[in-house]
Amino acid sequence: MKIAPSILAADLADLATAVKHCENGGAQLIHVDVMDGHFVPNLTFGPPVIADLAKRSRVGFDIHLMVSNPDVLLDSYLDTQPTWVSFHHEATTEPVRLAETIRGSGAGAGVAVNPGTALDEVLPYLEHLDFVVLMSVQPGFAGQAFQPHVLDKARRLHAEIAARGLSTAIEMDGGIKPGNLDEVAAAGADVAVVGSGVFAAKRPVEALVALRRQANE
Questions:
Q1: What is the pTM of this model?
Q2: Which of 120, 132, 156, 200 has the most C-beta neighbours closer than 10 Å?
Q3: Cα separation, 33 vs 21, whole angstroms
Q4: What is the set of domains in the chain, with CATH numbers?
């Protein structure tokens, strides 16, 4: 399982250092939460910020669009040349079209679902996705407690992916830390997004290395 550090939990006045910590800790993806102040209350990273950070990073970006109009904003984020991009199922009526646009840019396409959204809403278009983000907290704020019922979603999704012979990855996002990382991995997650578990540590690089080691034991 991969660990994707979330820079939302880093020192926002020193994001370049946060990216360097991710590199030095062996991260394979850097998670970037984009919030628009509408779909979620907070407001975060615009395309120019991500583009400048990408110039300083050898690690690919995993852009999570927590926005109410992904169809309008998508192209500007694709211009930053991310590795993965996800949008929320709850924010669009055309998920297949958005996924195909993302794939057409060369990035992996994903859909994110809130803890209260039924998995059945995503399964009809699973074949069009490279990954699914299962939110294990309500989107919009860092530092929330993990919602364990999402593990059942992960188990069911993992079984469905296997039954269809797909290679779709499962990403889990929210409240993940050393104490529940083993459960997340056992439920079938391929990527765990970790924010404060890395950046609230006194030594973020060492914390990331320890999480990566735990994820692969």
A1: 0.96
A2: 132
A3: 18
A4: 2-215 (3.20.20.70)
